[in-house]
Amino acid sequence: MLLEAKNAIVYGAAGQVGTALSTAFAREGAKVHLVGRTRATLDGLADRIRGEGGRAETAVLDALDEAAVDAHADAVAAESGGVDISVNVIDIADAQGTPLAEMSLEDFERPVRIATRSTFLTTRAAARHMVRQRSGVILTFGGDGGGEPIRDYSIGGLQVALGAVDVLRRQLAAELGAYGVRVLALHTGGITEGLPEDFSGREAITDMIVGKTMLKRAATFADVGNAAVFAASDLARSMTGTSLNITAGAVTD
User: How far apart, in whole angstroms, are the C-alpha atoms of residue 1 and residue 3?
Assistant: First the structure.
Protein backbone atom coordinates (compact mmCIF):
# COMPACT_ATOMS: atom_id res chain seq x y z
CA MET A 1 0.00 0.00 0.00
CA LEU A 2 1.38 3.38 -1.03
CA LEU A 3 0.12 5.34 1.99
CA GLU A 4 0.50 2.77 4.77
CA ALA A 5 0.56 4.37 8.25
CA LYS A 6 -0.07 7.88 6.89
CA ASN A 7 -2.60 10.30 8.38
CA ALA A 8 -4.61 12.30 5.87
CA ILE A 9 -7.00 15.17 6.55
CA VAL A 10 -9.58 15.87 3.84
CA TYR A 11 -11.62 19.05 4.22
CA GLY A 12 -14.90 18.84 2.32
CA ALA A 13 -14.53 15.08 2.50
CA ALA A 14 -18.11 14.11 1.74
CA GLY A 15 -18.37 16.05 -1.52
CA GLN A 16 -17.78 14.36 -4.85
CA VAL A 17 -14.08 15.18 -5.09
CA GLY A 18 -13.58 14.72 -1.35
CA THR A 19 -15.14 11.27 -1.50
CA ALA A 20 -12.85 10.29 -4.37
CA LEU A 21 -9.79 11.47 -2.45
CA SER A 22 -10.83 9.97 0.86
CA THR A 23 -11.66 6.53 -0.49
CA ALA A 24 -8.45 6.43 -2.56
CA PHE A 25 -6.29 7.41 0.41
CA ALA A 26 -7.98 4.80 2.62
CA ARG A 27 -7.62 2.13 -0.03
CA GLU A 28 -3.86 2.71 -0.01
CA GLY A 29 -3.57 2.38 3.76
CA ALA A 30 -3.95 5.92 5.10
CA LYS A 31 -6.05 6.74 8.12
CA VAL A 32 -8.41 9.36 6.72
CA HIS A 33 -9.76 12.17 8.87
CA LEU A 34 -12.98 13.25 7.18
CA VAL A 35 -13.87 16.89 7.81
CA GLY A 36 -17.03 18.72 6.81
CA ARG A 37 -20.11 20.49 8.07
CA THR A 38 -22.72 17.73 7.82
CA ARG A 39 -22.51 14.85 10.27
CA ALA A 40 -24.75 12.46 8.35
CA THR A 41 -22.78 12.54 5.10
CA LEU A 42 -19.45 12.28 6.91
CA ASP A 43 -20.64 9.27 8.93
CA GLY A 44 -21.99 7.63 5.78
CA LEU A 45 -18.63 7.97 4.04
CA ALA A 46 -16.77 6.75 7.12
CA ASP A 47 -19.01 3.68 7.28
CA ARG A 48 -18.31 2.97 3.62
CA ILE A 49 -14.55 3.27 4.10
CA ARG A 50 -14.59 1.03 7.16
CA GLY A 51 -16.77 -1.48 5.35
CA GLU A 52 -14.09 -1.73 2.68
CA GLY A 53 -11.40 -2.33 5.29
CA GLY A 54 -10.13 1.22 5.62
CA ARG A 55 -9.71 3.52 8.60
CA ALA A 56 -11.66 6.74 8.98
CA GLU A 57 -12.49 9.33 11.63
CA THR A 58 -14.93 12.21 11.29
CA ALA A 59 -15.04 15.79 12.52
CA VAL A 60 -17.73 18.41 11.98
CA LEU A 61 -16.23 21.86 11.55
CA ASP A 62 -16.15 24.86 9.24
CA ALA A 63 -12.87 25.16 7.30
CA LEU A 64 -13.26 28.95 7.50
CA ASP A 65 -13.10 28.84 11.31
CA GLU A 66 -9.48 29.52 12.28
CA ALA A 67 -9.68 28.22 15.85
CA ALA A 68 -11.58 25.08 14.86
CA VAL A 69 -9.17 24.19 12.05
CA ASP A 70 -6.11 24.65 14.27
CA ALA A 71 -7.63 22.68 17.14
CA HIS A 72 -8.60 19.78 14.89
CA ALA A 73 -5.17 19.52 13.25
CA ASP A 74 -3.54 19.62 16.68
CA ALA A 75 -5.87 16.85 17.88
CA VAL A 76 -5.12 14.67 14.86
CA ALA A 77 -1.39 15.07 15.37
CA ALA A 78 -1.65 14.32 19.09
CA GLU A 79 -3.93 11.31 18.76
CA SER A 80 -2.64 9.76 15.53
CA GLY A 81 1.03 10.66 15.65
CA GLY A 82 1.22 13.37 13.01
CA VAL A 83 -0.31 14.97 9.93
CA ASP A 84 1.08 13.54 6.70
CA ILE A 85 -1.39 14.65 4.02
CA SER A 86 -3.74 17.63 3.90
CA VAL A 87 -6.15 18.60 1.13
CA ASN A 88 -8.93 21.16 1.05
CA VAL A 89 -11.79 20.65 -1.41
CA ILE A 90 -14.65 22.47 0.29
CA ASP A 91 -17.39 24.05 -1.83
CA ILE A 92 -16.43 27.65 -2.59
CA ALA A 93 -19.98 28.73 -3.52
CA ASP A 94 -19.16 30.24 -6.89
CA ALA A 95 -21.83 31.94 -9.02
CA GLN A 96 -21.65 30.98 -12.70
CA GLY A 97 -23.44 32.02 -15.86
CA THR A 98 -23.54 35.78 -15.16
CA PRO A 99 -21.04 37.96 -17.06
CA LEU A 100 -18.53 39.70 -14.79
CA ALA A 101 -19.73 43.12 -15.95
CA GLU A 102 -23.22 42.26 -14.67
CA MET A 103 -22.23 40.40 -11.49
CA SER A 104 -22.64 41.74 -7.97
CA LEU A 105 -19.52 42.39 -5.90
CA GLU A 106 -20.74 39.88 -3.31
CA ASP A 107 -21.06 37.08 -5.87
CA PHE A 108 -17.64 37.85 -7.33
CA GLU A 109 -15.86 38.05 -3.98
CA ARG A 110 -17.44 35.00 -2.35
CA PRO A 111 -15.42 32.21 -4.05
CA VAL A 112 -12.19 34.20 -3.80
CA ARG A 113 -12.66 34.76 -0.06
CA ILE A 114 -13.72 31.19 0.69
CA ALA A 115 -11.00 29.56 -1.42
CA THR A 116 -8.12 31.68 -0.16
CA ARG A 117 -9.17 31.73 3.49
CA SER A 118 -9.91 28.01 3.76
CA THR A 119 -6.78 27.01 1.84
CA PHE A 120 -4.59 29.27 3.96
CA LEU A 121 -6.06 28.10 7.26
CA THR A 122 -6.00 24.38 6.48
CA THR A 123 -2.53 24.35 4.96
CA ARG A 124 -1.11 26.48 7.77
CA ALA A 125 -2.55 24.13 10.39
CA ALA A 126 -1.04 21.10 8.68
CA ALA A 127 2.26 22.78 7.83
CA ARG A 128 3.02 23.56 11.47
CA HIS A 129 3.03 19.84 12.24
CA MET A 130 4.73 18.84 8.99
CA VAL A 131 7.60 21.24 9.63
CA ARG A 132 8.24 19.59 12.99
CA GLN A 133 8.04 16.14 11.38
CA ARG A 134 10.19 17.35 8.45
CA SER A 135 7.82 15.59 6.09
CA GLY A 136 4.34 15.89 4.65
CA VAL A 137 2.29 16.62 1.54
CA ILE A 138 -0.21 19.42 0.97
CA LEU A 139 -2.49 19.14 -2.06
CA THR A 140 -4.65 21.77 -3.72
CA PHE A 141 -7.36 21.10 -6.29
CA GLY A 142 -9.11 22.88 -9.11
CA GLY A 143 -8.78 24.49 -12.51
CA ASP A 144 -6.58 23.48 -15.41
CA GLY A 145 -3.39 25.29 -14.45
CA GLY A 146 -3.13 26.76 -17.91
CA GLY A 147 -3.68 30.39 -17.01
CA GLU A 148 -6.09 30.91 -19.89
CA PRO A 149 -9.48 32.60 -19.37
CA ILE A 150 -12.68 30.65 -19.94
CA ARG A 151 -14.23 31.69 -23.24
CA ASP A 152 -17.92 31.75 -24.13
CA TYR A 153 -19.07 31.10 -20.54
CA SER A 154 -18.80 33.19 -17.39
CA ILE A 155 -17.60 31.50 -14.20
CA GLY A 156 -17.55 34.65 -12.09
CA GLY A 157 -14.87 34.76 -9.42
CA LEU A 158 -14.04 31.05 -9.68
CA GLN A 159 -11.10 31.47 -12.06
CA VAL A 160 -9.69 34.27 -9.90
CA ALA A 161 -10.08 32.09 -6.79
CA LEU A 162 -8.28 29.15 -8.39
CA GLY A 163 -5.50 31.42 -9.63
CA ALA A 164 -5.01 32.80 -6.13
CA VAL A 165 -4.81 29.28 -4.68
CA ASP A 166 -2.19 28.39 -7.28
CA VAL A 167 -0.04 31.37 -6.24
CA LEU A 168 -0.43 30.35 -2.60
CA ARG A 169 0.55 26.78 -3.46
CA ARG A 170 3.77 27.90 -5.17
CA GLN A 171 4.75 30.16 -2.28
CA LEU A 172 4.07 27.45 0.28
CA ALA A 173 6.22 25.02 -1.69
CA ALA A 174 9.09 27.52 -1.72
CA GLU A 175 8.88 28.16 2.02
CA LEU A 176 8.26 24.58 3.18
CA GLY A 177 10.59 22.65 0.87
CA ALA A 178 13.58 23.01 3.18
CA TYR A 179 11.62 21.08 5.83
CA GLY A 180 10.82 18.18 3.53
CA VAL A 181 7.22 19.30 2.99
CA ARG A 182 5.87 19.03 -0.56
CA VAL A 183 3.03 21.13 -2.02
CA LEU A 184 1.30 20.06 -5.23
CA ALA A 185 -1.83 20.88 -7.20
CA LEU A 186 -4.25 18.56 -8.98
CA HIS A 187 -5.55 20.18 -12.17
CA THR A 188 -8.37 18.46 -14.06
CA GLY A 189 -9.86 21.16 -16.26
CA GLY A 190 -13.30 20.03 -15.14
CA ILE A 191 -15.01 16.74 -14.25
CA THR A 192 -18.14 16.28 -16.31
CA GLU A 193 -19.50 13.30 -14.38
CA GLY A 194 -20.08 15.63 -11.45
CA LEU A 195 -22.55 17.85 -13.30
CA PRO A 196 -26.16 17.36 -12.14
CA GLU A 197 -28.38 15.53 -14.60
CA ASP A 198 -31.04 18.24 -14.35
CA PHE A 199 -28.60 21.14 -14.84
CA SER A 200 -29.71 23.13 -17.90
CA GLY A 201 -26.16 23.96 -18.92
CA ARG A 202 -24.82 20.42 -18.55
CA GLU A 203 -24.49 19.70 -22.26
CA ALA A 204 -22.83 23.02 -23.10
CA ILE A 205 -20.31 22.74 -20.26
CA THR A 206 -19.56 19.11 -21.08
CA ASP A 207 -18.90 20.03 -24.71
CA MET A 208 -16.67 22.91 -23.62
CA ILE A 209 -14.59 20.77 -21.26
CA VAL A 210 -14.30 17.71 -23.48
CA GLY A 211 -13.82 19.74 -26.65
CA LYS A 212 -10.52 21.15 -25.37
CA THR A 213 -9.01 17.75 -24.57
CA MET A 214 -6.76 15.59 -26.74
CA LEU A 215 -8.26 12.37 -25.41
CA LYS A 216 -11.83 13.54 -26.12
CA ARG A 217 -12.90 12.77 -22.58
CA ALA A 218 -12.70 14.47 -19.22
CA ALA A 219 -10.93 13.25 -16.10
CA THR A 220 -13.07 11.18 -13.73
CA PHE A 221 -13.29 11.22 -9.97
CA ALA A 222 -11.38 7.93 -9.98
CA ASP A 223 -8.60 9.63 -11.97
CA VAL A 224 -8.41 12.36 -9.34
CA GLY A 225 -8.16 9.83 -6.52
CA ASN A 226 -5.42 7.88 -8.26
CA ALA A 227 -3.40 10.99 -9.05
CA ALA A 228 -3.74 12.20 -5.47
CA VAL A 229 -2.47 8.90 -4.10
CA PHE A 230 0.57 9.10 -6.36
CA ALA A 231 1.23 12.73 -5.41
CA ALA A 232 1.00 11.97 -1.70
CA SER A 233 3.18 8.87 -1.88
CA ASP A 234 6.94 8.45 -1.86
CA LEU A 235 6.77 7.68 -5.58
CA ALA A 236 6.47 11.44 -6.05
CA ARG A 237 9.07 12.34 -3.41
CA SER A 238 10.96 14.67 -5.78
CA MET A 239 7.88 16.59 -6.90
CA THR A 240 6.87 19.88 -5.31
CA GLY A 241 5.80 23.36 -6.38
CA THR A 242 4.17 21.97 -9.49
CA SER A 243 0.85 20.52 -10.60
CA LEU A 244 -0.27 17.12 -11.78
CA ASN A 245 -1.87 17.70 -15.15
CA ILE A 246 -4.86 15.36 -15.42
CA THR A 247 -6.70 17.48 -17.97
CA ALA A 248 -6.78 14.70 -20.61
CA GLY A 249 -4.67 16.93 -22.85
CA ALA A 250 -6.68 20.15 -22.50
CA VAL A 251 -3.49 21.83 -21.30
CA THR A 252 -0.01 21.04 -22.63
CA ASP A 253 3.17 21.80 -20.75
Answer: 6
